[in-house]
Amino acid sequence: MSGQSITAEPPIAGAPPEAEAGAWRRYAVALGFLLPAAFFLVLWVVYPAIRTIVRSFFDDAGGQFDGFVWFDNYTRLFSDPTTVTAIKNNAIWVGVVPALVTAIGLLFAVMTERVSWSVAFKTVVFMPMAISLFAAGVIWRAAMYQQDPDRGAVNAVVASVKDAVSPAGVLSQAQPSSEAIEGTPQGGLTLTEAIGTGDSALLGLTGIRGEEVPEDAEQAVLPEPLQGGITGVVWRDFSPGGGTPGEVESEEVGLPGVTVELRGADGGQVASTTTEADGSFVFEDVEDGEYRVAIGSDTFAAGFGGIGWLSADLITLSMIVAYIWIWAGFSMVVIAAGLASIPREVLEAARTDGGTEWQVFRRVTVPLLAPVLTVVFITMLINVLKVFDIVLSVAPGSVQDDGTVIALEMWRESFTAARNYGFGSAIAVFLFVLVIPLLLLNIRRFRREA
Amino acid sequence: MTSAAAAEARPAPVIEESMSARILRVVAKAPIQIILVVVGLFWLVPTIGLFIISLMDPADLASNGWWTVLSEPSRLTLENYRTLLDNDTITSSLWTTLWIAIGGTVIPIFIAALAGYAFAWLDFPGRDWLFILVIALLVVPLQMALIPMFDLYNTFGIFDSVLSIILFHTAFGLPFAIFLLRNFFIGIPKELLEAARIDGASEIRIFLRLILPLGLPAIASLAIFQFLWSWNDLLVALTFGRETQPITVAIFSQLRQFGANLELIAPASFVSLAIPLVVFFAFQRYFVQGLLAGSVK
Questions:
Q1: Is the pLDDT of residue A170 over 70?
Q2: If you measure CA to CA, which chain B residue comes closest to A445?
Q3: pLDDT class for A169, splitting at 50, 70, 90?
Q4: How far B55 CA lies from chain A's nearest CA (Å)?
Q5: Are residues A227 and A255 in the same domain?
Q6: What is the total count of domains within chain A?
Q7: pLDDT tens string B256-278
Q8: Which residue range forms the structural domain that includes residue A137?
Q9: Cβ–Cβ of A427/B143 closer than 8 Å?
Q10: Which of A41, A250, B28, B161 has the most Cβ atoms closer than 10 angstroms to its Cβ?
Q11: Three-state SS across B204-245?
């Protein structure tokens, strides 16, 4: 750092007064160049930093220097439930994000080397770097993470997968319309009285919202009894005028697509069928005996309500995904630059020696990239320790206590209602202490390369 | 496997070999291509989603996902943007953001260039130690200065002003800017400077006429970073502004009633990220250069 930069000889002791005056004049010029920067750095960085350190030892609530409390603010840092949550959350961030961002960046950098449209890909992945963490948080919260599968894209994808695996029931909130039916929707509804062949079963349901009635439903029809079989109808036992419970009346519609089970005397299932558009169903060729007719519980299975990405349990995970979405581009671009600087011959030589692609990657590429990977990793560590904006934009107010991080607690303690400057200062100093070794490491590596 | 195939094909005409090799190469790359397309889409979807939301009618939005518009583009409307432009809070916050970003870019870079030149080419005692001190200031997180500056701004009566926010960005942008510019300036050929000095040019003249033009590539990278940093900031403006609200803070105050006013938040967010995106696409090269030089901040 010295050597190369020295342009003028230092003044020699005992030099003629003229030369000395020239030296002083040069110093004055240099001072003039440095003064504006010095003004800002001293007044905005050095002085406040010292003041914050001092303040962290005072019980300073409401902006009053209130008395020296030794390390009380620091012990509170590790006992106050909110700051403990913040520290725990930050530990998760530190444990997950830098490693993942570095790994993803490396993966992308290596993969893009093999396609001709790498510039387009890199531009797309890198783009979130330009926008604010705050706006990026809004993007994820508004477009991706809403709980209602009809509004949040992530849950919409989950819902479509889930519907394919275990579809929602036709009716989710129906209740029996009369006491002829017992049971609960969760356990399945059963006709109280046993019936035999030639009988018809009346399964009236209420509590079905208009929009829940299947579109192809028609006027309910009580089917004719069938010799050697059991017939019946499942219908919405409700008409605009009210109607009599337990009777099929005009303007009451059948419920199509409902699974009806025929259960034997021992409760075991004998047969099952689904209802027609008018709600009717038929079990043919039933042996003589006593049976019970039931609507299976899967008819009432609730639809997928969506995963609560913004709930207390998942908020940190959700924020981390958004954060990786933002920073992967940075990692990819820096690592790709490192990759480009590896001499092709080295890789070619390794391949000629019979190394597989994986071996070349593992034994040659990664070790040669180690310095770059370290810089990315440490840079991400520093970023993650200071993470702030994204919590305010992704986490709804009600879960901010659960998703909070150190930098956010510093701000909330100091500048929201509490105005707890002493404690806020201690949190700031804690952050400072965490960041120092990392930044020194990065600067050292960085200067070695420069 | 490729080399084995090539060895076998050697007696055949050269053109045929390269054809088969090419087909093999394309087939071998297919999985990577597909994965990258999927990943690329995943990276695009959220931003596109917000953009579509910003173009949807609030009533429509309340019950329908933004992706349903893709099959029915006629539902898109510019109404939200029209309402946004009539919203004085938002429009004035956009101007505030612009002033903060411009001030927070020009001032620190000019001051850092002065200091960077001194550290690179002027002689004074303790120069190297002072430079190390400046680098050391890089480690100070801005959280360390929030509370004291809050007090100080109040004392000097500049709390809640664009100026107070700009000056804060200036100070915390300086260490890195000085570091970067000093390292760039030192690479300027010594002969150029000496020739100018022999011609009797003053240092300030050399700085303005020689150093600044020659340092333009580094200054450009730095300018983009400072601009984006000041434009995108939330924490500083949230702390030192009340009435003075840049767009991030304005959106933040809207967020408290989230859901009820997505039709305002979505277009406002999109406008707030459109300008950084324009800067990004216009100066992508400088942006990447700055990033490679600056992965230390």
A1: no
A2: B296
A3: low
A4: 13
A5: yes
A6: 3
A7: 765 568 888 899 999 998 988 88
A8: 72-151+309-449
A9: yes
A10: A41
A11: HHHHHHHHHHHCHHHHHHHHHHHHHHHHHCCHHHHHHCCCCC
Decide if A37 and B141 are in contact by the 8 Å CB cutoff.
Answer: no
Chain A interface includes B272 (CB < 8 A): yes
Q: Show which of residues 3-22 on chain B sit within 8 Å of chain A, judged by CB atoms.
A: none
Residue A10's pLDDT band, with cuts at 50, 70 and 90, is: very low
For chain B positions 68-97, those within 8 Å of chain A (CB to CB) are none
Given A48, A121, A450, which is nearest B145 (Cβ)? A48
Q: How far apart are CA A159 and CA A155, in angstroms?
A: 6
From A132, A144, A436, residue closest to B273, measured CB to CB: A132
**A406 and A347 share one domain:** yes
A244 in helix, strand or coil?
coil
Q: Do B43 and A325 touch (CB under 8 A)?
A: yes
**DSSP string across A56-108:** TTB--BTT----B-TTHHHHHHTTSHHHHHHHHHHHHHHHHHHHHHHHHHHHH
For residues A21 and B189, give the distance between their C-alpha atoms in angstroms, rounded to a whole number. 28
Q: Among all residues of chain A, which has the CA nearest to that of B263?
A: A142
| Residues contacting residue A380 through CB under 8 Å, at least 6 positions apart | A97, A98, A101, A102, A327, A331
Tell me the pLDDT tens digit for each residue of A345-382.
888 888 888 888 888 888 888 999 998 999 899 889 98
- Has the ipTM of the complex gone over 0.90? no
Q: How far apart are CA B56 and CA B60, in angstroms?
A: 7
With a cut of 50, list the residues of chain B below it in pLDDT. 1-14, 296-297
Confidence of residue A302 (pLDDT cuts 50, 70, 90): low
> Residue A401: left (phi > 0), alpha (psi -120 to 50), or beta?
alpha
What tens digit of pLDDT does each residue of A20-57 get? 778 888 899 999 999 999 999 999 999 999 999 999 99
Q: Which residue has the tokens 């010799």?
A: A227
Nearest to B96 by CA among B166, B48, B39: B166
Residue of chain A whose Cα is closest to the Cα of B259? A142
Stated pTM of the model: 0.79
Within 8 A of A27 by CB-CB distance, chain B residues are 123-125
Beta bridge partners of A232: A201, A281
Residues 169-208 of B with CB under 8 A from A: 170-172, 174-175, 178, 183, 186, 190, 193, 203, 207
Contact A30 B149 (CB under 8 A): no
Which of A96-110, A435-449, B221-235 is predicted with the least confidence, judged by mean pLDDT? A435-449
- In chain B the domains, ranked by start, together with CATH numbers, are 2-77 (no CATH), 82-293 (1.10.3720.10)
Question: What's the confidence (pLDDT) of residue A147?
Answer: 82
Q: Give yes or no: residues A322 and A398 share one domain.
A: yes
